[in-house]
Amino acid sequence: MALVSTELPAMSVEPKKKNVKYAFTCTILASMASIVLGYDIGVMSGASLYIKKDLKISDVQVEILMGILNIYSLAGSFAAGRTADWIGRRFTVVFAASFFFAGALLMCFAGDYATLMAGRFVAGIGVGYALMIAPVYTAEISPATSRGFLTTFPEVSINLGILLGYVSNYAFARLPLYLGWRVMLGVGAAPSVLLALMVFGMPESPRWLLMKGRLADAKSVLEKIADTPQEASERLADIKAAAGVPNDLDGDVVTMPKKRGSEELRVWRELVVSPTPAIRRILLAADGLHFFQQASGVDSVVLYSPRVFKSAGITGDDQLLGTTCAVGVAKTLFVLVAAFLLDRVGLATGLAAVGRSPDAEVPWAVSLCVASLLAYAAFFSVGLGPMTGVYTSEIFPLRVRALGFAVGVACNRVTSGVISMTFLSLSDAVTIGGSFFLYAAVSALAWVFFFTHLPETRGQTLEEMGKVFGTNDTAMEAGDASAEPGYSEGLLLTSA
Known about the structure:
Blueprint: H1 2-55, H2 59-87, H3 89-108, H4 113-141, H5 147-150, H6 153-172, H7 177-186, H8 189-198, H9 206-211, H10 215-225, H11 229-243, H12 261-273, H13 277-295, H14 298-311, H15 317-335, H16 344-355, H17 363-382, H18 384-395, H19 398-420, H20 423-453, H21 465-468, H22 474-478
């Protein structure tokens, strides 16, 4: 017995290191979908300048072209959960990549505005799929000890993709007018192909495998990604419990219980039609957080940075696009140091400083505009950017988490679409400086909302969220009792 007890710890060290590396690699591959997503968003920032000149379209047409992607993405987001349950997480990533590929080619070869909009629609479906499937796969494949770190990868990857889009703008800006913006958009097709090929080196999600009754395959994947054999067994037991499979049921293939359609109607009723006071407060907190994240004007910064810098007196495409690349660098670097506390004051202050309408004749005003926009990008990437998804995925009880998160994402995308499709018109009406003063005012209101409606969740378990939101609703807390800590993020989108 003594020999066994001394050997077991030694045996558990190496698999833990190897498994973390394996899960890390799988997460990197899955995050490629988010990189392609970010590229598609960021590249339009500079490409739109040349599209307007080449196709001779109006500012209204430009802002619709820029923002409509968010509205289109809703269809992909709500379809992604069904697709992921049907064909699996891995091949849903391939599905998203195919939409990106087709959308990029349509936009690349577009000869008119209508074809360009068709390409945006196809790419928008891919965006919706990527927004849903990348976080789901990452959360379901990550070992418990590394899940918090690995689940930040999709957000980091989106920002990296945005930066690559900005770099693409800068790299191809010197091409002839009719060719430059087409190459910028067409380049997005290449990583989509690479993503689709890499998927075949990724394991399938153990939760999906069990949903399909493939118990032996689910065990095999869990043994590769879990820190220890004990954790693999515990996670398998938790997945069985969540799926309604008796824990003592074993074998290579099991028969899964059928889902009842009435369960979805009950969830809708509990969340939207007749919510309890606690659920109502949670829904208000989640939707408010998603709304203010976008209403603070982040998409105006991401999509229209060259126009903002141009209004500040920066001339020449190289200078405009180069300075825009600095915004991408700031966002990417600071999302890596994202904290668990929203920096509300910094966000509003940065916007107010940008709102100071710069005078092109005053050098310090140009420097202030650039510095303020960089500060805004940094504050957003540390606070509102990564924290919105983290916070809203924690606060919903398990039984309504999928639908609750989906409702929050829908609010987020609609608000983002409205903001990005109105920036140029708003700027014409109140100037670019006035627009950012307005966003600063919204951020100030957001600070008040966060302070009064968002209780601190740090250190609280999922089971304690009911008490955090001011209720002793034991049914609500019991709804989370079967959830594996941290694993619920992998469940929250798949049935939406």
